[in-house]
Design a protein that fits this description.
The complex is a heterodimer of chains A (591) and B (43). Chain A is mainly α. Chain A is built from 26 helices and five strands. In chain A, strands 2-1-3-5-4 form a five-stranded mixed beta sheet. By secondary structure, chain B is mainly alpha-helical. Classes of the chains: A mainly alpha (591), B mainly alpha (43).
């Protein structure tokens, strides 16, 4: 664990030093550290992509690049370390009041909780299905390539490139730490934003509100990509406002680059581009200033940065967003885009959205945004900054994104990109309430009750991971308890030939070391949705599949008696796994 | 020195804050927190 953490810090320092040099930053500050780290991670991700596409994904190549960079940028690295040590020594000056100290303690508790989760073995569904499962395949084949029958392998994979590096150098835990780093960098960015554009204390409070959002600290411990998307969306916004202040070309280029990175992380990033375009228009109509040149630079940079991903997909399949949009592309799959919208798309549901997403998180996929946004953001009119154009502008950004989100995929984690700005609005509202003497103590009490509840949730969610991180439980025992697919994957790894080709209805394939293909992709790609299971087994045999792994969920009760002998021979089956949230059993068939 | 109108506005804002925070807090406790705690205890 310590070794992985040290390698992670080493890579972050190299990225930051590199970013500092190419951005020409001379002074050390929190803002410069975040900017340089984001630029460094951006270059690192594209370096892995380029080297991977060329088929040179070997550990020694990256170790060499990193060591050379380390020696080349050692002065910057030393300066960064000295800056943070000095900051640490003057920690009392950074948090002067008891209120600030309490916020700082809660902030560090949330960081520790998320770190513990990040250091434990991966158990996140999408991470095990593709976020780290595909990087594992890239590393094994030393090449970044399209994976047969995988829906996602030609999607924009910016964060997955960092995961690939993590798996190549050390393993999945290092990969997870890159997503954890996004959460920490983002909270520091929120602090710097508040300090720069409003007041330092509002930045600190906003950073704490954001990091103590249950959905954020929970996801920061998984190898997902949503917080990285949120980080780069926020950085794009950050440099939009910096450009508004000083009109320097460099800032609008950075705004465009970071927006382009959003579109390189996942398709949802296109919504960020739309929202940023609306912000340019809002700025134009509010201030009546010429924005055409700046908007052109912004658009060119955004498109240039994300171009490699869409171009790759277009060259390989003729569809830049393969396998989506059957309406436009013949080779697209017959599949819905995004997840099902749980709320009907009407004005009433849109108005009550903040209430619904706070009170009924299960309707939106289960991630909890917590109570603080609903409790405090409505009082933004009390803030003395309400007439500030930036405040109006971030309200516009939040509303436009929320409306697009409401009309497309209503999953709570897809709304993360507006949480940093909502945290800033909540923080400004709270300082607005503090100006009302009678309400101040009441608001402080409500704020700390909510933050303490969120902290308790954070530690509740990390309690299992803590045992593994402290060495009180083995990784194997943890995975046996917590990860439904681990035991069956272990059985397959130990009892099948390395050349086995397995067809599976279990999307979590990371722990299985065989050529394992998930049902949905195979069926959609070969247009087999109307074929019976009996017919399917014949097709699979012809296609050299050796096994079928059936994951059977309650109330569906496919059992041994439903499998006729000519389909295949049951070689292993489990009972329903009751101690994981997902209640399912496995049947392994030999064809 | 605040005018009478400003004092009334301030008191009104304070009342709205009290009512809203209590309303949201109680609703959150009843709809989300208590069922969540029950769920945790029952595991």
């Amino acid at each position: 664990m310590i070794g992985t953490l040290l390698i992670f810090l080493w890579i972050i320092l190299i990225c930051s030093a590199f970013g500092e040099r190419i951005c020409g930053l001379k002074q050390q500050s929190i803002e410069n550290f975040i900017l340089s780290s984001c630029v460094g991670l951006f270059v690192l991700s594209y370096t892995v992509f380029l080297i991977g596409v060329l088929g040179w994904l070997y550990k020694w190549i990256f170790i060499t690049i990193l060591w050379l960079s380390f020696f080349y940028y050692h002065k910057e690295i030393i300066a960064i370390c000295k800056y943070f040590l000095t900051k640490f020594r003057k920690i009392n000056n950074i948090f002067p009041t008891a209120f600030d100290k309490l916020l700082a303690i809660l902030y560090f508790l949330a960081v520790i909780a998320a770190l513990v989760k990040a250091l434990a073995p991966e158990i996140g569904n999408d991470a095990l299905a593709y976020h780290i499962a595909h990087p594992k395949i890239f590393v094994e084949s030393h090449k970044i390539k399209a994976i047969a029958y995988a829906r996602e392998s030609l999607w924009p994979y910016f964060t997955e490139m960092l995961f690939t590096l993590g798996i190549l150098l050390r393993g999945p835990v290092l990969a997870k730490l890159f997503h954890f780093a996004s959460a920490v960098l983002l909270s520091m960015g929120i602090y710097a934003f508040g300090e720069k554009h409003f007041m330092r204390r509002s930045g600190l409070l906003a950073a704490v509100i954001f990091l103590l959002t249950p959905a954020i600290f929970t996801q920061a411990g998984y190898a997902y990509v949503d917080i990285t998307l949120t980080l780069y969306a926020f950085m794009s916004l950050y440099f939009f406002y910096t450009w508004m202040d000083n009109k320097k070309l460099k800032n609008i280029l950075l705004c465009g680059i970071f927006c382009g990175v959003c579109m390189s992380i996942k398709y949802l990033g296109i919504f960020i581009f739309i929202c940023m375009t609306v912000l340019f228009l809002h700025y134009y109509f509010a201030e009546r200033k010429n924005i055409i040149k700046a908007f052109t630079y912004f658009t060119i940079m955004s498109l240039l940065v994300c171009l490699p991903w869409y171009l790759r997909s277009y060259i390989l399949t003729g569809n830049p967003v393969y396998p989506l949009f059957q309406v436009f592309f013949k080779n697209a799959w017959d599949m819905p885009i995004g997840i099902a919208c749980n709320l009907a798309k009407n004005i009433q549901n849109l108005i009550f959205l903040p209430w619904s997403i706070t009170m009924y998180p299960k309707t939106f996929g289960g991630e909890q945004v917590g109570i603080l946004y609903l409790m405090f953001v409505p009082f933004i009119f009390l803030s003395d900054r309400i007439k500030n154009f930036k405040v109006k502008s971030i309200i516009v950004f939040a509303i436009i994104f929320a409306v697009i989100w409401f009309l497309t995929s209503q999953a709570a984690r897809y709304i993360f990109p507006i949480l940093p700005v909502l945290a800033i609005l909540a923080s400004l509202s709270i300082y607005g309430i503090f100006r009302l003497s009678r309400a101040k103590n009441f608001a402080i009490a409500a704020l700390f009750i909510a933050l303490t509840f969120n902290s308790a949730l954070a530690f509740y969610h990390t309690r299992d991971g803590l045992k593994v991180v402290l060495g009180l439980e083995s990784e194997e025992s943890y995975l046996m308890r917590k990860e439904r697919s681990y035991a069956i994957s272990k059985y397959i790894n130990e009892n099948t030939e390395p050349s086995a080709k397995i067809f599976t209805t279990e999307p979590r394939v990371y722990y299985c070391d065989r050529n394992i293909i998930y049902t949905d992709g195979y069926i959609a790609c070969n247009k087999l949705s109307d074929v019976s299971f009996n017919e399917l087994t014949k097709i699979l045999k012809k296609d050299n599949f050796t096994h079928i792994l059936l994951a059977v969920e309650r109330p569906f009760s496919t059992s041994a008696k439903d499998i006729s002998p000519h389909m295949g021979r049951i070689i292993y089956q489990t009972d329903f796994i009751e101690n994981t949230p997902e209640d399912r059993r496995y049947i392994l068939l030999k064809l | 020195m605040l005018s009478k109108r400003e004092i009334v506005k301030k008191r009104l804002a304070e009342s709205v804050i009290f009512i809203w925070i209590i309303f949201v807090g109680v609703a959150y406790a009843l709809i989300f927190v208590i069922p969540k705690i029950k769920e945790i205890i029952s595991r």
